[in-house]
User: Fold E2 ubiquitin-conjugating enzyme from Argiope bruennichi.
Amino acid sequence: MLTYFDSRIMTSHQVENIELFYGLYIIVWLFTSSRLQEDPPAGVSGAPTDNNIMIWNAVIFGPHDTPFEDGTFKLTLEFTEEYPNKPPTVRFVSKMFHPNVYADGSICLDILQNRWSPTYDVSAILTSIQSLLDEPNPNSPANSLAAQLYQENRREYEKRVATIVEQSWLNFNDDEEKEPKKDS
Assistant:
């Protein structure tokens, strides 16, 4: 028996293999989600949205003894069907001033690009981003002003980061209000 699937004609055996793959895929998702919920790394949390397992909301708390200390930063992770073979798209929702964060919130981090490995889970991604906050790579800047200040005028850099940290407290709940509501 032949079935039309993914723009090709496939045998029912091939379709069964694909269904098995997606079943395993869901199991991986559930494991990742439950592991993050039951034993979260310090300073990070995340979970799938209520209506879409492929979109996660996350929070990273600024690491202790860093300019980002006491900050509460929201992120989104958007997965595709190619996960875990391809990394999710990760963006800060909270405003960020950092050498490796673009204006749109996307993050320049090697494990989200050319050094991605299918072994990385959400916990690894979030803890890597949390580490990046204190250990930026100014040689690969996404924000050239932040990179320049980080290297040449650390006091001004830290002053701008302090402003972002304060905004993270004030705007933490406002981010939900800014998101457009869908008509029912």
